[in-house]
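User: I'm designing a mutation panel for Amino acid adenylation domain-containing protein and want to avoid disrupting the core. Could you give me a predicted structure to guide residue selection? Please restate the sequence first so the numbering is unambiguous.

Assistant: Good idea. Sequence first, for numbering, then the predicted C-alpha cells:
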Amino acid sequence: MEVLTHFNPFEGPEIKHILHTTDAQEEIWYSCYFGGDDANKAYNLSLIIEFEGNLDITALQWSVDMLISRHEALRSVFSPDGKFINVFAAIIANIDLQDYAGLSSQEKDAAIKSYTKNDTGKVFDLTKEPLIRFAVLRTEADKFQFIMTTHHIVCDGWSLGIIMQELGALYSAKVKNVSHNLPDSVPYTEYVAHQNEIKISPEFNQTEQYWLNVFQNDIPKTNLPTDFKQITKRTYNGARINQLLDKNVVKGIKQTGIKGNSSLVLTLMAAFEILLYKITKQEGIVLGLPVAGQSSMGAKHLVGHCVKLLPMKSNLDIDDSFIDYLKKRKSANFDAFENQELSFGSLLKKLNIPRTPGRVPLVPVVFNVDMDLDDGVTFEGLSYKYHSNEREYETFELFLNATGSKDNIVLEWSYNTNLFKESTIHAMGESFNAILNKLIEQPNAKLSEILNRSNEDSIVTGLSLDYPNTTLHELLYKQATSTPTAIALEFKNEKVTYAELQRKINSTAVYLWEKGIRPGDTVAISLERSPELIATLFAILQCGARYVPIDTGYPDNRTLLMISDAESAFFICDTSKQALEHGAKTIFIEELRIKANETSETIIDVKVPSDAGAYIIYTSGSTGKPKGVQVTHNNVVNLLFSMGNEPGITPNDKIFATTTISFDAMVMEIFLPLIHGASVVLVDEETRKDGHLLLQKAIEDNITVIWGTPTIWQILLDSGWKKPLHIKALIGGEPVSKALSLKLLEKVDEVWNIYGPTETTVCCILTKITDQDDPITIGKPIANTDIYILDANGKPVRTGEVGEIVIGGDGVTNGYLGQEELTNERFVNNTFQAETSTKMYLSGDLGKLLPNGQIECLGRKDGQVKVRGHRIELGEIEHSLNKLKGIQSAATDVRNNALKAYVVYEGTNDEWDTDVALWKKQLASELPVFMLPHEYIKLDELPITLNGKLDRKNLPDGTHIITNKVESTQPFTKAEKLVSEVWKECLFLDTINLNDDFFELGGHSLIAAKVMTRLEEKSGQRLPLSSLFEYSTVKSLASLLKIEENTVTWDSMVPIQKNGSKTPLFIVHGAGLNILSFKTLKHNMDPEQPIYAFQAKGLDGKEDLLTSVEEIAAHYNESLLATQPKGPYKLAGYSSGGIIAYEMAKQLMAKGEEISALVLLDTYAYAHYGKSTSLGKKIAYGNYLANKTLHVLKQLSSREGFKYRIGVTKANLKKLYLRLKKDKTTVSKTDYDWEYEGRIIEHNKVVDRYHLKSLPIKVDLFRIEDVIDYTHDSVNLGWKSFAENGIELHYVPGDHLSMFSPPNDKVLSASLQRVLDNN
C-alpha cells in the first residue's frame, strides 16, 4: 500500500465544532446502535467511477483532501451516545491503492469483486474519523476504478452528486495547474442551525399537524406478500437487481406524464404505486419518498445528511384513469413537499402504529430518484462512467431507486433477502414494465382495467392440453402395437416386451371373463409386485370392471372391510388368503398364472367409456371407516398426458416401481411409463426395504426416474449414496424440506415436487425444485386443472393470504363410494365455472398464492396427518383406541415423524405393560402398520381448549411412559458400545440398555436405514437392513459385528476427496499442524481431482511429535505410497508444510520416482534454512532479524503500517502472558491453547534445524500479492537458489491466513487446478 499523506500517530485531529445531532441523523444512529453491524452496513453509500486515461494519483489525492476540507460533514464523527456531532478542523482520508494490472483476467475480476464487496460491506465506526473512504484499483495501464464509500449519516444522494462535481473540478484544476472556481461551500453547521430554528417556529407546528391530519382516519399498511415465513426479528440482509428501462418506455412514460401535467419523476412514482396496488390488492398504501433538504434550504452546494423521508399516503379509486390518479398525486406531493420539515422518526412517535416484529413500520417500501448525478462532472484528460455499488444489506423491505439519466433510466431494486427471493423481485420488475406499457398505451383507461381486478387473480389455471377420449387398457394396446419388441417390464431376471405383456393381459382377461367378471363389476386385488400383477390390473380394465388395490400386508380385518365396503364381486389373491371369509368369488393367482401363460391374441371386445371407473382406492377416514375414492379412466388419462408433458417421460426412460398397489402413486410408476413406451422395473419387497440394495439396483439397472416420499429419498441418501446419478427424482406424499431438496439436487439431475390428494388423481400441482427455492413450494397446476385459494366463505383470498387449497378440473374424481353425505361435503359445485356443472374438491390443506404464481402449502386445517407418505385421519386411530379395554379416552399425534398414542388409563401401573402389549396386538389386527402408534404415553387427562375440544398442540412432547422396572444392563463390548452410540444418535436418546428393542424405542424404516449406514461408516462392515428386524436388540445386533478390542492409532493422512480419475494431490499442513484450511479445496476444485492431506503426528497431544523434517517426510511418504504405489506424484505444502513437501519430493526422487508437480503455497525459504551448521544458521537468522527490525521501523512511519504493528504487538503480548500463565481451564483455552501452541513452537524448531538443499526440480510457487512482513527475497520468497529447474509464480488474493478462505479460495483453487492439469 502506498500512503500519500504524512501521518503522525501521536497527533489527534483538532475539534472545530460540536453540534447537536439532527433528528434524522439521530434516527440513523439509533438504528445502527440497536440493529448492530448489519444495520450499520445497510447505511453505506458506495459508488465506482471507472476512469480511462492517464490518471494522476497525486492530483486525485489532493482533490480528496480539498473536498474534505471544504465540507464539514465529511470531517464529522458522533459522540458515543449519538447526541452530538464532532466536526474536526481537518482529517486525513488516504486513497488505498491496489494494482491488479498484472493479474490474469479471471484473477483480476475476482480481486476487484472481492475488494468492492469487502469495502461496501465494511462497518464504519461512527465515533471515529473518517466516515468516508476512497480507493483506486488499477486494472490496466490506463484503466482505473475509483471507489468512494461513505456513511449515510454524513451524506445523501444529493451530496454524492456535489462530491462528484467538486472532485472533477478540483482534479482538473490541479492537473492543469490552475485555481478552481468552485463556489464557497455551505457549512453543515448552518444546516443544523436552520433545522433548530425550524423546530421552534410556528410553521413547524403546522407541519406536524398536517401529517397528523393525513393519517387521522386511517394508516394503511403496505403489506407486500413475502416468500418466506414471517420473521420475528428485524433483519438487514439484502441484495439488488438492476433493470434497464427500454428507451421507448422512457419516452412513452414522459409523454404520459405530460398529459397529466406531471414530471417524469412523479409519473414513475405514481406508476410504481399502481404496481404496489396490484401486488398488495389493497385500497390504500403508504410509500416512502426521500426528498433533499438542500433544495428547500436553497443551499444546493451543501454536503451532508439533509434528506427527509416523506410517508406518501395514497388511496385507490379503480374508476379513476391513470391521468386522474396522476393529477391527484401531483397535488398531494406538492402539499407533502411544503411540509417536509418533520422527521420521519418524529412522526412515528406521534402516530399510534401497531408494530409487526421483523417488519419496517409505515414505510416498508421506498421510491427514490438519483438521476443525473454526474451532471457537469468532468475530469481533465480522462473519460469515465460511474455506477453505484450493490450492498448485501438493506434498511427497507423494498427500495426502488431510479438512477442513470432521463434518457437511460436504470431501476435498482434493493430488497431484504429474508423476505423475498430474487425470482420474486425479477417478477416485480417484469410486472412494473408491463404496467408502464399499459399506462403508455391506455393512460385514460380505468385503473380497474389496468389492474385487472377480478376474482380470477386468485385462481391459477393449468395448461389447456388435449388428450384422447379413451381408456387405460386401450392406450397400452396402442403402445404395444407401436413398440412390440421394446421392454415393458423387468422383474428380477425376467424381461417382458410390450407384445408379451399385451398377450399376458389378453389371456388373463379371457380367463377373468370366463370366471364371470363383467363391465361395472368391482374386483378386489391383493398381490405382490410382479408382471402378473400388472397384467391382471389391465385385464380387469379390459373386461370393463374396476379394481380395488389392497396391500398384501394389511391385517385380515382391514382387507375384509375393504372388500365388503367396495361391494367387490371378485377377490384376486394368493392362496395364503384362502381362509378369509367374505362374500366375493375368489380367484387365486396360482391358478390364474397357469392360464395367463397360455398367451392369447384374443381381446375382450367391450366398449368401455372413458368416464367409467378404473379403480377405487382407499384412504383413512376420520369416523373409523376408510373412504373409497372412485377414480375414472378419464381422470387418469389426463394425469398421464399432463405428466408426459411435464415433468416429462420418454421411451428411453426406466422407472422404478416400488410403491404398494394400495398407494395411488403406483399410477405414476406403472401407467405413466407404460403408455409412453418406457420401461418399468418392478422391485421386490426385500430390495425395496433396504436402501443399500435399492440404490445399488438403481445404479445397475440405469434407472432414470424414481418416485418416492421424502422418507424414501432420505433412506437412499442415508444408504451411502456418494456419486451423482442421471435420475429425475419425483418426490411427494409429504412436505419436502429445504435440507432434503439441497441434498437431492447434489445427487440427481432434476427434483420435482408432486402434490395431490387421492381425490384429485395422484397429482394436481407440481414444480421443479431448484437450490434457490425457499420456501419449497408445491408449484402450479398440471394441465386442465384449476386451483383456487378460498376463504371460509368460499371466496378467493388475495395473493399472499392464506386460504384452503381447492381443486377443480379433469382430475377431480367421482367422490367417496357409498358416502354421499361426505362426498357432498368435500366435492362441491364449482361456482367459478357454473355453466359446466363440474365439481371442485376441498382439500383441507391450507396454502397461499405467492407473487411468482407458485402455491405454497402450509399444512392441514383438520386432524389429518401424513406419516411416511401415508395420509392418516387421526380420528380413525382414536376411534379404534377408544374401543379397547382399559382406555378411558385417547388421542394421537405425530411427533418427530413417529405416531404417538396418548391414553387416559383406567388400570394400575403394574398392569400398564401388559395392557399396552395387548392393545398393540388388537390394533395390528385391524389397522395397517403405518397407522399403529409407536409409543403409548399415559396421561391423567387429555388437554382441552376453552371450548372443550381436544387441544392436540398441548399434548406433551416428552415421553411419559410408565413401564415395569427392568434392571439396567449397559453395553460392555466395543461392538455393543458402538451400536448403543449409533442408536442414541439416531433415536435422540440419552441412555440405552443392552436388551432394549430398536422398534420399541420408536425406531422405524427411515431411522433403521440411517442406523445401518452409520454402523457401516463407523465399523467398515455392511449389514443388510433386514438384519435389524431379526436382531433388534443392542446385544443381538452387536453380535453380528466383528470388532477387535484394540486401540485405534493416529493416521496422518486424511482423504479430503477420495474419488476421481485424475492423479491425486498430496498436500502437507502448515505451521498450525492441522488441515482445516484445506476443506475449501474439495468444494472448488475439479470433482475428478482426488486430494489427500497430511496432518501432523502428535497433533492430538497423545503422541510425540516427530523430531526432524526427514523423519516427518518419510512418515508421510509411507502413507502416500500405500495409497499411490507408483508415480508420477503431485505434492503441495502450505506455509512451513512446503519445506516438508520439498523433502518428500527429495526422498521420492532418490527412489527413482517422478515428481510431476511440486506446489509451494506461500512458503518462505528463510536464509538460514540453507545453512548446514548451527553457527551458520545463527548468523543467517541474526542477519534476518536485523533487516526485519529496519523494516518494522520503516513501517511505523505509515499509518497503516503502524496500526498493523500495534495489532501484532498486542497479539504477541497476549500470547506471551497466557503462555506464562499456562491456565489449563477450558475457558482459557478458547483464548489461547498453550499446549497446542507449544506443539507448534516445537514443530517450528524442527523445521528451523532442517538443511535445505537444491534439487533438479521445478517449483510452482503460490504467493500473496502484498507481503507485509520482511523477506530477504520479496519476489521468489527465497526459493531461487533451490529450485534448479526454475520457479513459476502464481499470485493469489488475500493474505497468508486468508488465502484459503472465501472468496479467495475460488481463485486459489482454480489456479491450483490449472497447475495440476498442466503438469
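For picking mutation sites, this is relevant: DSSP finds 39 helices and 47 strands in the chain. The longest strand covers residues 839-849.
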